[in-house]
Amino acid sequence: MRILLVTHYFHPDSGAAAVRLTRLARLLAARGHQVTVLAPMPHYPQGRIHPRYRRRLVHVEEIDGMHVIRCWLWATPSPKISRRLPSQLSAMMMLALRGLGVPRADVALIEGQPVFTALAGWFLCRLKRIPYVVNISDFWPEHLLTVGVLHERHPVYRLFRALVNRTQRGAAVITALHPPLLESVEARLGKVADGRVIYNAVDLERFRPGLDTTAFRQKYGLPQERLVTFIGTFGTHMDFEVMLDVAAHFNRREDVRFVFIGTGVQRTYVQERLQTPQLSRARWIDWLEHEEMPLAWNASYLTFWAIRNHDLNRKFLQAKVYEALASGTPVAIAIEGITTQVIAESGGGFTVPFGDTQGLISAITRLLDDETLREQCSRNARAYAEKHYDPQHVADAYEDALRAAIKGRPPQPAK
């Protein structure tokens, strides 16, 4: 197949979407498909174009058998909508214009978020009469309601909803990372003719237990204490008030150190709290390149996080779950919904309700003080990842969805 992938994030961007889509594109190319990637210049999460790609409108290169076309965008590190909107609009315009010169593909895979990049893909597919698959990885535009500023009748929300609906209605196939995402699409559009749930995967060779983390610890000045880590984006959905209160509880334990790894819109709040005496033993490390992530998980005695209480957050499974389980890193999470089900099924750790600071403290204490329990959770986590998160199975599913889009046939039964 000649496949066009339209995405806002692609290697060397970091973050879950870039990792997931780059891995999928490589696997499809390795299977003999002609894969063309259309994406903005790498800029995530720092909000600055990668040095190698600066001062050019278009950059074309061959990577692992893929033809990668990158277009300029106005990048910004600001989380403000007044800055992010022009950035995404610039990406949409450049992708749409440059995409006019891309030879017609047999089928396209369009990443559904952000919506303006998806609109560029939709425009090209309509113009060139390319059947396409839309991949849904986030609750958008529903996520706009979680910040508490917009409501369902707000003109801005209604505009984004109309744009999202436009890109999704014309899709031959809609794929979603887990069932609630597909349900949210059908709540807006009605029953989807060909909707498929394709769970995420993880590189089980790179993300595995037993890696030597000596050099990693030395590079970032991490002592040989047991590290309790948070690794990921400091997004608005994360409940850092709870997490930092939990870290403060353990501040006097000299055998434990809390480490917050990542960046995002709550970075300033986290850094300010870490300057207080109650968190003198906790520290922050900036965003790591994806190549170092397996070492960060292996250096973690256990990992923890807390999510804010919102209905949508009950339906979302974060990418860090996959990496933690594959690395055999036990988890303690304040969350409810689908993540709770996965962790219970895996036996890889514990979850407590939203906002339950004391419950999270108790879960972490159990894992710290019971070495046998901690080792059992580690083994359970890895075994679950090996069974459920094989990237080749995911590539099989997307390959079938793309073929179905070309042929207009119904989904094939699961193997």
Overview of this structure, please?
With 415 residues, this protein is an alpha/beta fold. It has two domains: 2-201 and 390-407, Glycogen Phosphorylase B (Rossmann fold, 3-Layer(aba) Sandwich); 214-388, Rossmann fold, CATH 3.40.50. The protein contains 14 helices and 14 strands. It has helices spanning 16-30, 81-99, 115-128, 155-169, 179-189, 214-219, 240-249, 267-274, 293-299, 319-326, 338-346, 357-369, 371-388, 391-407; strands spanning 2-6, 34-40, 58-63, 66-71, 107-111, 132-136, 173-176, 195-197, 226-231, 256-261, 283-285, 300-306, 331-334, 349-352. The protein has an eight-stranded mixed sheet with strand order 3-4-2-1-5-6-7-8, with helices on both faces. A six-stranded parallel sheet has the order 11-10-9-12-13-14, with helices on both faces. Strand 10 (256-261), helix 8 and strand 11 (283-285) form a beta-alpha-beta unit. Helix 1 crosses helix 14. The longest helix is centred in the N-terminal third of the chain and has 19 residues, at 81-99. Mean pLDDT is 92; it is low at 410-415.
